[in-house]
Amino acid sequence: MMADNQSAKISITLSHKDVAEQQVCYEIFVQLKKIFHQIMGEAWQWQLHTTDAFGKTTSEIYTTLDKVNVLNKANWPDIISFLKQRMIALDTFWCGCKYAFE
Protein backbone atom coordinates (compact mmCIF):
# COMPACT_ATOMS: atom_id res chain seq x y z
CA MET A 1 0.00 0.00 0.00
CA MET A 2 1.12 3.49 -0.76
CA ALA A 3 -0.38 6.94 -0.62
CA ASP A 4 1.28 10.21 -1.57
CA ASN A 5 0.28 13.68 -2.68
CA GLN A 6 -1.16 12.46 -6.00
CA SER A 7 -2.67 9.00 -5.51
CA ALA A 8 -3.13 5.89 -3.40
CA LYS A 9 -2.02 2.48 -4.62
CA ILE A 10 -2.42 -1.09 -3.48
CA SER A 11 -0.40 -3.85 -5.09
CA ILE A 12 0.99 -7.31 -5.04
CA THR A 13 4.65 -6.87 -5.89
CA LEU A 14 6.73 -9.88 -6.82
CA SER A 15 10.39 -9.13 -6.22
CA HIS A 16 12.13 -12.50 -6.21
CA LYS A 17 15.75 -11.92 -7.21
CA ASP A 18 15.56 -14.82 -9.67
CA VAL A 19 13.40 -13.38 -12.46
CA ALA A 20 12.53 -16.89 -13.68
CA GLU A 21 11.09 -17.73 -10.23
CA GLN A 22 9.34 -14.37 -10.22
CA GLN A 23 7.76 -15.17 -13.57
CA VAL A 24 6.59 -18.60 -12.37
CA CYS A 25 4.78 -16.96 -9.46
CA TYR A 26 3.35 -14.27 -11.76
CA GLU A 27 2.04 -16.94 -14.13
CA ILE A 28 0.21 -18.64 -11.25
CA PHE A 29 -1.49 -15.32 -10.56
CA VAL A 30 -2.36 -15.07 -14.27
CA GLN A 31 -4.01 -18.50 -14.10
CA LEU A 32 -6.10 -17.17 -11.20
CA LYS A 33 -6.77 -13.80 -12.83
CA LYS A 34 -10.48 -14.35 -13.44
CA ILE A 35 -11.03 -15.41 -9.82
CA PHE A 36 -8.84 -12.54 -8.62
CA HIS A 37 -10.84 -9.91 -10.52
CA GLN A 38 -14.10 -11.51 -9.43
CA ILE A 39 -13.14 -11.36 -5.75
CA MET A 40 -11.69 -7.86 -6.08
CA GLY A 41 -14.82 -6.68 -7.88
CA GLU A 42 -12.74 -4.86 -10.48
CA ALA A 43 -9.93 -5.35 -12.97
CA TRP A 44 -6.42 -4.50 -11.78
CA GLN A 45 -3.32 -3.64 -13.84
CA TRP A 46 -0.80 -6.44 -14.48
CA GLN A 47 2.89 -5.85 -15.28
CA LEU A 48 5.45 -8.59 -15.75
CA HIS A 49 9.12 -7.65 -15.33
CA THR A 50 9.12 -3.93 -14.82
CA THR A 51 11.88 -1.96 -13.12
CA ASP A 52 11.25 -0.31 -9.76
CA ALA A 53 12.72 2.98 -8.50
CA PHE A 54 15.87 1.13 -7.35
CA GLY A 55 16.52 -0.57 -10.71
CA LYS A 56 15.31 -3.96 -9.46
CA THR A 57 13.19 -6.17 -11.72
CA THR A 58 9.76 -6.71 -10.23
CA SER A 59 6.34 -7.80 -11.37
CA GLU A 60 3.25 -6.13 -10.08
CA ILE A 61 -0.52 -6.48 -9.89
CA TYR A 62 -2.04 -3.21 -8.75
CA THR A 63 -4.78 -0.62 -8.77
CA THR A 64 -4.71 3.07 -7.95
CA LEU A 65 -6.98 5.82 -6.73
CA ASP A 66 -5.94 9.00 -8.50
CA LYS A 67 -6.39 12.64 -7.51
CA VAL A 68 -6.12 12.14 -3.76
CA ASN A 69 -3.52 13.63 -1.45
CA VAL A 70 -2.58 11.87 1.78
CA LEU A 71 -1.58 15.25 3.21
CA ASN A 72 -5.14 16.53 2.75
CA LYS A 73 -7.30 15.32 5.66
CA ALA A 74 -10.40 15.71 3.49
CA ASN A 75 -9.06 12.86 1.28
CA TRP A 76 -8.43 10.46 4.17
CA PRO A 77 -11.88 8.83 4.14
CA ASP A 78 -11.56 8.08 0.40
CA ILE A 79 -8.03 6.74 0.78
CA ILE A 80 -8.88 4.59 3.80
CA SER A 81 -12.01 3.21 2.15
CA PHE A 82 -10.10 2.45 -1.06
CA LEU A 83 -7.30 0.62 0.75
CA LYS A 84 -9.43 -1.13 3.38
CA GLN A 85 -11.91 -2.60 0.90
CA ARG A 86 -9.14 -4.00 -1.26
CA MET A 87 -7.12 -5.37 1.68
CA ILE A 88 -10.18 -7.32 2.82
CA ALA A 89 -10.71 -8.63 -0.72
CA LEU A 90 -7.01 -9.57 -1.02
CA ASP A 91 -7.29 -11.53 2.21
CA THR A 92 -10.33 -13.36 0.83
CA PHE A 93 -8.45 -14.15 -2.38
CA TRP A 94 -5.37 -15.36 -0.54
CA CYS A 95 -7.32 -17.57 1.88
CA GLY A 96 -8.90 -19.38 -1.05
CA CYS A 97 -5.97 -19.49 -3.47
CA LYS A 98 -2.74 -19.63 -1.45
CA TYR A 99 -2.41 -23.38 -1.99
CA ALA A 100 -1.81 -22.81 -5.70
CA PHE A 101 1.51 -21.20 -4.78
CA GLU A 102 2.87 -24.11 -2.71
Helical run tally: 3
Largest sheet: 4 strands, antiparallel
- The H-and-E topology, N to C, reads as EEHHEEH
Strand order across the largest sheet: 1-2-4-3
Number of strands: 4
Residue share in helix: 40-55%
Written account of the structure:
- With 102 residues, this protein is an alpha+beta fold.
- It has one domain (2-101).
- The chain contains three helices and four strands.
- The chain has a four-stranded antiparallel sheet with strand order 1-2-4-3.
- Helix 2 crosses helix 3.
Summarize it:
The chain is of the alpha+beta class.
Keywords:
single chain; 102 residues; 4 strands
Topology:
Layout: E1 2-3, E2 7-14, H1 19-31, H2 33-40, E3 45-51, E4 57-66, H3 76-97
Antiparallel strand pairs: 1-2, 2-4, 3-4
